[in-house]
Design brief:
The chain is mostly helical and 97 residues long. It is 66% helix and 0% strand. The protein folds into two domains: 1-47; 48-97, no CATH class. Helix 3 (50-67) crosses helix 4 (77-86).
Length: 97
C-alpha cells in the first residue's frame, strides 16, 4: 500500500509542528529566562496575520484538550489542571475567519 502525497504532507506537517514545539519548550529550560520566551512568543503571535493568530489559538486549545488527559505528578499538576479548566464546557471556540 502506497502513501499518498496528501498523507506525506500531513506527516511532514506533524513532524514540523512537533519539532517547533519541542524547540519552544526547550527554550524555557533556562534559569530566569522565561520572560524572554514570553516576549518572543508575544512578538511572534501579535506579528502574525490575525487569521493565523486565531488558527494558532484554536490549535493551542485542541492541544490542551488532549493534554488534560495525560499523566501528571507534582512537576506538571498545575499545567494539567490549567488544561482541564480552560477545556470545561467547550467555552473557547475559535471559528475559522
Amino acid at each position: 500500500m502506497s502513501i499518498s502525497k496528501y498523507e506525506l504532507q500531513n506527516e511532514a506537517r506533524v513532524e514540523e509542528a512537533e519539532t517547533a514545539f519541542k524547540a519552544l519548550i526547550d527554550s524555557t529550560n533556562v534559569m530566569s529566562g522565561e520572560q524572554q520566551v514570553v516576549e518572543g512568543m508575544v512578538n511572534a503571535l501579535t506579528g502574525s496575520h490575525r487569521t493565523l493568530q486565531q488558527s494558532f489559538m484554536r490549535c493551542f486549545v485542541e492541544t490542551m484538550r488532549e493534554y488534560k488527559d495525560t499523566g501528571s505528578d507534582e512537576r506538571n499538576q498545575a499545567s494539567v489542571n490549567f488544561a482541564k479548566e480552560i477545556c470545561k464546557d467547550d467555552q473557547y471556540i475559535f471559528p475559522f475567519v
